[in-house]
Structure formats: C-alpha cells, structure tokens
C-alpha cells in the first residue's frame, strides 16, 4: 500500500499550482549525495515515519456484499497507519525554493480529505476516504532537526505532510448462505416425551394462529 500512497502524492504534487511546471518529484532520502546528483528543480517527499493510528482501530468483522447486496464474505476492519513525509524544495536559490514550497502548500491545502474516487485500485476498493494534513503540529517522536541530522544534511525549510491510510486486514472468509426461510419451533412434551408426530415442526405464524384460535374459543359463549 505504501507505493500506492506514493502514487497518490505524486499525482497531487504534479497538479494544482504545479501543473505543467515540469518540476521533478522524488521520494529518495535528501542526503548530501542525492543533493549533489540533482540537476533540476525538484520537490522531494521523503517518507520518514510509519506508525499505526491506534485511535482508529476497530474490533469485529465487516460484511462484503455482492452486486445484489447479499453478504458473501466477511473481513476484519482495516488498520489505519500514519505515513509522514518530509516535503522540501530544491532549486539553485533560496528565493526560488520558497516560491516552490508556497506552490506546494497551495496545491495540498485544498485536499484535506481524499475520496475513494481519487485513490488507486486497492485503496479505492476499501471505499474509505484518506485524511491529509500538511504543515500541522508534529506529533511524531522524532523532531525534524533530528531527521536532518540522521540524513547528514543541513536543516532547511520543509513541510510535514501526513496521510492516514487504511491497510486491509487479511484474510477474508466466506459467509454462510443467506437465510431464505423463517425460523421453526419444534414442540415437545413437558415431561420430555417426543412429540406426537416425530419431526413435526410449526412455523411461528402457525403457532400464533393456533393460539389465537384457542383464545377465541375460550371466550366464545356456550350455546347450551
């Protein structure tokens, strides 16, 4: 699923204010070696943290419906994970980098919630929207300064981008066939003796009709 989220992010970053700009989008770690190899204006989206959003965890099972809305399979609820990206702009001058970061911000801000129709196949099949936050309050354990130190580079302006993505839980399993008949009630004697007619069963509506007939007979005046 992570590579599909990368695809979603790439489509976002090459649209909006950056559409037809020719800006390259990279997901490599922005190390000193990478920066030395870069030869064009680039938006770098480095995935630096993956962790479960335990507040969204659900229990139980979910139905899987066919085209007739009949339950054919069941599955466990998906698990949600926060994918955190460090988004930076790389050009020849700080002023151009700031303009590029501004364009990235203008492109991402309208997309607070990505509907299923904007997601690739497997994510779309879950029918769930994906929340997106950009430049919000950082809640991860590592600070951006620590990340830059680990990358061996110098601190530079960056946007913290977080997508909270559902990951399907496996496996699915087949559901039982749909119920097509009503429930039945088998009658036995209070002493545990078998019913007068072995295998005889009464449907609930038949039992109710018999009870109503007995009550009617009990309240009917004696003709004598």
Explained architecture:
The protein is of the alpha+beta class and 224 residues long. It folds into two domains: 2-174, no CATH class; 181-224, no CATH class. 28% of the residues lie in helices and 24% in strands. It contains six helices and nine strands. It has helices at 2-13, 32-37, 94-108, 121-125, 144-151, 204-219; strands at 24-26, 42-52, 62-65, 71-75, 79-90, 113-114, 130-134, 159-167, 173-174. Strands 1-2-5-8-7-6 form a six-stranded mixed β-sheet. Strands 3-4-9 form a three-stranded antiparallel β-sheet, with no helix packed on it. Strand 3 (62-65) and strand 4 (71-75) form a beta hairpin. It is elongated, with a radius of gyration of 31 Å. Mean pLDDT is 80; it is low at 198-202.
Structural class based on helices, strands and sheet pairing: alpha+beta
Shape category: elongated
Strand order of the main beta sheet, please? Answer: 1-2-5-8-7-6
* Major sheet details: 6 strands, mixed
Quickly count the helices. 6
């Amino acid at each position: 699923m992570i590579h599909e989220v990368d695809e979603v992010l790439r489509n976002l970053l090459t649209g909006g204010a950056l559409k037809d700009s020719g800006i390259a989008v990279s997901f490599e770690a922005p190390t000193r070696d990478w920066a030395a190899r870069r030869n064009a204006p680039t938006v770098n989206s480095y995935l630096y943290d993956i962790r479960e959003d335990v507040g969204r965890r659900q229990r139980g099972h979910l139905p899987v419906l066919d085209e007739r809305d009949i339950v054919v399979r069941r599955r466990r609820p998906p698990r949600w994970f926060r994918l955190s990206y460090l988004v930076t702009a790389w050009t020849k001058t700080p002023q151009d980098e700031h303009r590029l970061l501004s364009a990235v911000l203008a492109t991402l801000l309208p997309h607070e919630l990505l509907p299923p129709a904007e997601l690739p196949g497997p994510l779309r099949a879950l029918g769930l929207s994906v929340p997106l936050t950009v430049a919000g309050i950082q809640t991860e354990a590592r600070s951006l300064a620590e990340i830059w130190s680990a990358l061996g580079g110098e601190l530079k302006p960056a946007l913290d981008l977080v997508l909270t993505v559902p990951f399907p839980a496996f496996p699915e399993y087949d559901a039982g066939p749909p119920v097509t008949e009503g429930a039945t009630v088998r009658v036995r004697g209070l002493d545990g003796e078998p019913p007068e007619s072995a295998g005889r069963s009464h449907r609930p509506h038949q039992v109710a009709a018999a009870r109503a007939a007995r009550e009617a007979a009990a309240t009917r005046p004696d003709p004598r």
